[in-house]
Amino acid sequence: MKYAIRMFALASAVVVAAPHYALAQAPAGVSLKAEMVKDWTGLKDTMTKIATEMPADKFNAKPTPAQQSFAERVVHIAQVNNRFLGAVGGTAKAPALDAKAAGMSKEAAIKAMQDSFDYGTAILNEQTDQTLLQAAAMPPPFLGPSTRARLYTFLIGHTWDIYGQMVVYLRLNGGVPPASQRP
Question: Domains along the chain?
């Protein structure tokens, strides 16, 4: 019986300690920060390409009257990035954004979006693998307690969702998304 109790205690200790040990021990050469920077900057490039692909005269096109225009979707990315990146913490300042003005032209909308990604890159460059795993001071209430890394993964997921919408807008206006173009 004592042997069984000791084995249970040992197994319990392993189960409790293993996730913490695994979290603290990243494989050699792997960096959470480096992966986040790669994904974040790659997403900026992808979103810039699709936004640039929409002709300027179609930038205010809407699939239906109730939906936002393509320009408003682009500016929405900037708004959400700027809002939630502030919760990550850091010394980088959020870019000024007048959403109404930014939505008035293709160039202004794309610049607002790119500036929001640059803001995210600046904040990421202030982080380390360890600080990305720390709790964000004021995460959005709908996410609940979250690490700084989770805020980035939320924003990446949100932006890919908007990308899917932008693909539809572009195709409805005769365009082909850059990722689908063939030589």
Answer: 31-180 (1.20.120.450)
